[in-house]
């Protein structure tokens, strides 16, 4: 496997693990310790750009097929994730999409891995 493919694979697995960890942190904040919301907000900043980097890596590494477009889709979902809380948090219906988008991020991450 070329080096770019290996880097893509490591990034895909890392992103998946980060999604699971992020949901776990949200669970802690919801059911145990509300101060964990700060961790939930800050942790995402560590991995939010990973799908964009993965998408760009598909061109550098000549990775074709669904991985390219799923990576782009994951990045778009991350953007919607931020918007659902930062911009639309006062509108309950759109803000309520936040956990649904998390499910889609998980599914897309599994698909990419």
Automatic annotation (TrEMBL):
Xref: InterPro entries: DUF6220 (IPR046192)
Keyword set, alphabetical order: Membrane, Transmembrane, Transmembrane helix
Any Pfam family matching the protein: DUF6220
Source species, domain of life: Bacteria
Transmembrane segments: 6-31, 43-63, 69-85, 92-110
Name this protein carries in UniProt: Uncharacterized protein
Taxonomic source organism: Paenibacillus marchantiophytorum
